[in-house]
Amino acid sequence: xxxxxxxxxxxxxxxxxxxxxxxxxxxxxxxxxxxxxxxxxxxxxxxxxxxxxxx
Length: 55
Fold this sequence. Notes:
Layout: H1 10-51
């Protein structure tokens, strides 16, 4: 059975929670950015094929 957090441990616990949340947010931003850049690149390639331009 787990034991409750004592007052001395609370600031450390909160700091660990904040750090984990920031890591999750940053990971989400990175993966979203990769998808967006890939999608934009695909659109550019489609337009270049249509126009006859080289990208």
